[in-house]
Structures are given as C-alpha cells and as structure tokens.
Amino acid sequence: MDDLSLSLANFEGVAKLFPLPNLVMFPNTVQHLHIFEPRYRQMTADALLGDRLIALVLLKDDWERDYDQNPAIHSMACLGKIVADKLLPDGRYNLIFQGYSRVRLIEELPKTRLYRSAKCDLLPDKIPEDFDSLLKLRRKLAELLLPNLGEGQIQRHLSEIFESDMSLGVLCDVLSFAVPLPLKEKQSLLEILPVEERAQFLLERLQKLLATGPAFQGTKNIFPPPFSAN
Question: The Lon N-terminal domain covers which part of the protein (predicted)?
C-alpha cells in the first residue's frame, strides 16, 4: 500500500483546518506553505507529531471582517499531507504540502486548540462507465492547451502528462491547480465529483480564458508553485 492509500486508510475522520483566502488546493498537487501565525504554527506542530494531515480550505468572501476569529469557509476542502518541513529559528515553518483527497466538512468541532478542526468525509472521484467520453474530453483539453503554451519545458511536460496513463480526474485536478483561473471557478472544480462533468467544466472555462487573450503567459511561474503564506 502506497503512502497516499495508507494515510487515507488511517484517516480517522477529523481534520485540522487551514483556511486560506487565496489558494484552492487539489488532490495530486503540491504546494509550498509558509506558516507564521501562532495558531497555524500550533496546528503544524500538532500535525507533525501525528499523521501529518491537514485540510486546506478556501475562505468565503468578506473573510477579512472576522479573520482573527472564525471566518466563513467553504464546505469542500482538500485533505493532504505535510511531506517535508523545516522549522525556522523564530518558530515559523516552511512546508511542502501534497494534496491527497477531496473532503466534505460535515461539522466544525468546538475549539480545544488555537486552530479549527472539523469532522469530514473523504470524497473519491465518480468515474463513468463510458470511457470513450473521457478519452474525447482528454483529447479536447490537449488540443486546446498544448498549442497555446508555445515551445519549452512546460509544453513538453504537459505533453508527457497527456500521453501518460494519468487518469482524467487527476489530470483535471493538476490543470485546475496550475492554470490562472479565478478562485471561485477553482473552488467549483474542486466541488465537482463526477470526472466527466469536471473535465467539461474545465474545458469551458479554459476556452473562455483563452478567448480573452494570452492566458498562459504566467504559467511558467506556477510550475512549481510559489510559497503561499498564511
């Protein structure tokens, strides 16, 4: 059993919550995190002493009004694992976080620590029986994206991904994380469990994005993604 499967099999249904205003995390993606607030330093320390799992969740609009308390968060989040960590001399952390699974937050629990936690359910992809439709969507995504990336490392990397045996669900998650879509659209993509619907939604949003101009000029700066600070 690989680390991902083992971690999810041992997940007990309660996640430490790391709400962020500017990041939607997806399964099968990696993000650098810089942790400096006391509550999230405590969260990180607790996670490192345990299963290393936390859930990244997007804050809802107007989060600034209640940021120091319990601002509203979306009900769908990404559970993942701290795969590398560095404790800095002043108590801050630099982390590498890998997304593992979508989770639905069922009930937020009373605080016993500085950070928030919630009961949650793991949510696997819903895969249709009609694989032909998935292959067609995969081809459409490749035909749309690859010509717009120009020549270079990113184009070659994505070509290899499209030609690999990576599932369409994982492919959509990687693309949704990497391309410069609005946060609300990324959150919508996170919330779509049926893979065919997710791929179609992503295709439509990418078509719209490309229609407005050179949408992928900044993509080179997204692979790998920069640090996200809490």
Answer: 15-210
